[in-house]
Amino acid sequence: MKRQRNSVESSSSREDGASLYSLKCVSNNMEQLDIVFLGAPESGKTSIIRQFINGTFNTKYTPTKQASLYSSAVVYQNRLYEMNIVDIPSTPFCPSDGLKKPKLGTPSSNHFSWDDLQAYAAAISRASVLVFVYDITSSESFQFVTDLREQILECFDPDATTVDLPMMLVAGNKHDLHRFSRLARRHISHMVRKTWKCSYLECSALFNWHIGSIFHEAVRLVNEGPAREGSNSHYRLPIRAWKHCSCNIL
């Protein structure tokens, strides 16, 4: 891997076996960043995370069936951060409160418990940054992200300002297959940046292309965006997850 300004150097270890309802801070002096990855099935969001954390890519597709938590110590502009990366399974909707439950027979109720969905919603609402991943060769993949973003926005108070909302970033994965893409990607990029007011990047998890840039941009958004009340280093995601740890330099 070529070393660039936004490239990543990492060493990693994996801890399995426990359900995590809270995250332990590596140091009280570290600011915490909670980055939640969302996306359509087979969009490659898990591959992006694992490429960033471990520098590995698995060619065999395995659906994400439960949330996974990856923790990294990240250095950005001479500041040390504790980055918690949450990989959430593809869910067809965002539950807005405890009174609404999925109807029997819906995709969400077939695969996830209501407690899991509520935990995912809590993680989304308190995220520092939401990263929406879609497959640039699939119009259905981008439509999934579009619908999911709208549903998430509906979960927030209608009077909420941009300060109250999580930062959002859209990542178009599988750039290595861009020759087979029939999507108007320039139009998508313009719409995401101008209409959604979100950052937009394209990447390839297969070739580790622009993977570091996604996380670099996520940290930049937190540093340069408006401060949000309640988004502090003491919050912990209430989510069941397998934990993976690494140390990275952006």
TrEMBL record:
Protein name (Swiss-Prot/TrEMBL): Ras-like protein family member 10A
GO MF term set: GTP binding; GTPase activity
Top-rank taxon, per record: Eukaryota
InterPro entries the record matches: P-loop_NTPase, Ras-like_GTPase_Reg, Small_GTPase
Name of a matching Pfam family: Ras
Annotated SUPFAM superfamilies: P-loop containing nucleoside triphosphate hydrolases (SSF52540)
SMART domains registered for this protein in UniProt: RAB (SM00175), RAS (SM00173), RHO (SM00174)
Signal peptide (UniProt feature, chain positions): none
Transmembrane annotation, as ranges: none
Organism whose genome encodes this protein: Holothuria leucospilota
